[in-house]
Design a protein that fits this description.
The chain is α/β, with parallel strands linked by helices. It has two domains: 3-161, Response regulator (Rossmann fold, 3-Layer(aba) Sandwich); 186-468, tm_1862 like domain (pyruvate-formate lyase- activating enzyme, Alpha-Beta Horseshoe). Helix content is 38%, strand content 14%. The strands form three sheets. The protein has a seven-stranded mixed β-sheet with strand order 2-1-3-4-5-6-7, sandwiched between helices. Helix 1 crosses helix 6 and helix 14 (354-367) runs parallel beside helix 16 (415-436). The radius of gyration is 23 Å and the shape is globular. Residues 536-560 are annotated as: Disordered.
Length: 560
């Protein structure tokens, strides 16, 4: 049977300004399919290739697939739904399937607004997909769908969700087919090198209320560091990858495994051939002060820090364990270790003012990060926080949930003014860097990297793709009152989805009354990286490299 995977053609002017990122999901699913004997697998990266609907429909028609599958994060959900609508238009016999974090939690919403989708894969896709494909291949579809774990689908007018499938226990059995990607297309602009996004672990041992990672992956599983380096070495040798970013939300959670990973890279001489970056927390950098030189020796050159907010007022609102001085110290330690540091600021909360935005700029100048990024606060619709915000979330057009569009309207300013003041921060910060910093950072790697970052910003600025400025008609301070974010206000939450949330909220309330749930004090908001938990070295020993569980049966399985 012929299987076609499609990465939806979604663009927002966010992370993509630094380059084209390889869709790792396609490699992982293709690897699982080929490992099971399904070799007729095709892939279309409609995002990187800017494939419009007409061309995509023509390519689907030419390939004549039996199954078309795609994925979606929240902002790309409508594009993903359209991919599958086009597949059904080509042939109603094509089985259309959707996966990813948004569909996993919002399957009632998705199936209500896109009934042409035959099946949603909920959670990790590799093992569920094989069960699904085998049923189709053996002629057991659609009758067998009720017996396959981890699915959601329409049965007449009813939305059905089968029992959650167990998570993949042995991550090393998953062999991604990196060859399905055309690697010459995936280039990291600051260095002009091919880029990859491998991962060390799935899940997180912590359960922050604002986060979806632990909900999606459920149990925390970390790979053998040597196996991760094996994969990176393959990417370098076979696909000429010269830069990678670990996909983990926080790869430094397990310090022992992270150190072992760094030591393995050094032992194989890979830092001379490939450099890399990570996202992590301020608290982890402070904890690992004595190891930062080792991390740099292993090729770590870029750390993105979730400082989230500059003003202490906003840190308190996020309930961050970090303080302003801790943020400043972490940035200084990274710079002293010759690691470029990017400070992440979350803006656009309800209490945002011109003064708080100016404070983020002043703190960025005081902290002296190499790079700074101001992201609009975006509450994921499947997080507990989204429900708690209630009517404050007036926009349900998920296409705009992209970190560059103000979803929440601050009480003290209009959205256009918010965007303008954020752009003013960018202009001032990078103008100073361009004139007084980047050109004078020596003649080596740091200078090359920073000038490459500046090139990426300038390119996106001239093309008006940065922050989606061209689409929203922003041309500078004079246009802030004319900005049009093009919200589709006809988009609403499906009754089936909201009813599900209300039931979940009631269960949480009753559990809290029984003392089974500990809530954040005063219901305060947290941002990514905002938990105060640390995984001790002793606790890390409990997370051995993922392998087959002692009992392959139901014991140890986690279900939603």
């Amino acid at each position: 049977m012929r299987i076609l995977l499609v990465h939806p053609n979604y663009h927002s002017g966010g992370a993509e300004i630094a380059g084209n990122w390889p869709p790792a999901w396609a490699a992982y699913l293709a690897g699982a399919l080929r490992g099971a004997g399904y070799d007729d697998v095709h892939f279309i990266d409609a995002m990187t290739d800017h494939v419009d609907d007409a061309e995509l429909e023509a390519r689907i028609r030419a390939l004549k697939p039996d199954v078309v599958g795609t994925t979606a994060i929240t902002p790309s959900i409508y594009k993903a739904e359209e991919v599958l609508r086009l597949a059904k238009a080509v042939s109603p016999a094509i089985v259309t399937m959707l996966g990813g974090v948004h569909a996993t939690f919002m399957f009632k919403q998705v199936l209500t607004e896109a009934p042409w989708i035959d099946v949603i894969v909920r959670g990790e896709g590799e093992e569920i997909l094989l069960d699904l494909i085998r049923a189709i291949d053996e002629g057991r579809w659609p009758l067998a769908r009720h017996a396959i774990e981890g699915l959601a689908f329409l049965d007449g007018a009813d939305i059905i969700a089968t029992k959650a499938a167990p998570t993949v226990k042995d991550l090393e059995k998953i062999k991604p087919d990196w060859g399905i990607l055309q690697w010459d297309k995936y280039v990291y602009i600051p260095l002009g090198k091919r880029v990859a996004i491998p991962n060390m672990a799935r899940g997180c041992p912590f359960t922050c209320s604002f986060c979806s990672q632990w909900k999606f992956w459920r149990d925390y599983r970390i790979r053998d560091p040597k196996a991760v380096v094996d994969e990176i070495e393959t990417l370098v040798n076979d696909h000429e990858v010269g830069f990678f970013i670990l996909a983990d939300e926080e790869p430094t959670i397990n310090r022992k495994k992270f150190i072992a990973f760094c030591e393995e890279l050094i032992a194989r001489g890979l830092p001379e051939r490939v450099q890399w970056g990570i996202n992590t927390r301020v608290t982890d950098i402070l904890r690992d002060e004595a190891y930062l030189a080792l991390y740099r020796q292993a090729g770590l050159v870029h750390v993105s820090l979730g400082t989230e907010a500059a003003a202490q007022l906003k840190l308190d609102l996020f309930n961050k364990e970090t303080t302003v001085e801790q943020n400043k110290k972490a940035i200084r330690l990274l710079r002293e270790a010759d690691i470029l540091v990017e400070a992440q600021f979350i803006v656009g909360l309800e209490n945002e003012t011109a003064e708080t935005l100016e404070e983020t700029y002043r703190m960025a100048q005081d902290w002296k990060p190499d790079l700074a990024n101001w992201s609009m606060y975006t509450p994921w619709p499947f997080s507990n926080l989204f429900e708690e915000l209630g009517d404050k979330v007036e926009i349900h057009d998920f296409d705009k949930y992209n970190f560059v569009t103000p979803i929440i309207k601050p009480a003290a300013m209009e959205r256009g003014e918010l965007l303008d003041r954020v752009m003013n921060n960018y202009r001032r910060f990078y103008m100073r860097k361009a004139l007084f910093s980047y050109p004078w950072q020596g003649t080596g790697y740091r200078r090359k990297y920073l000038l490459g970052c500046l090139k990426a910003f300038l390119k996106a600025g001239f093309q008006r793709t940065f922050y989606d400025l061209g689409r929203v008609n922003y041309w500078g301070p004079q246009s802030r009152k004319k900005v049009d974010f093009q919200f589709d206000r006809s988009r609403t939450l499906a009754p089936a989805q909201t009813a599900d949330w209300q039931a979940a909220a009631e269960r949480s309330r009753k559990a809290a009354e029984r003392g089974a749930v500990v809530h954040d004090a005063a219901g305060v908001i947290k941002a990514c990286g905002g938990g105060d938990q640390q995984l001790s070295d002793e606790a890390a020993d409990a997370f051995a490299p993922a392998g087959p569980p002692p009992d392959p049966g139901a014991k140890g399985r986690v279900h939603l």
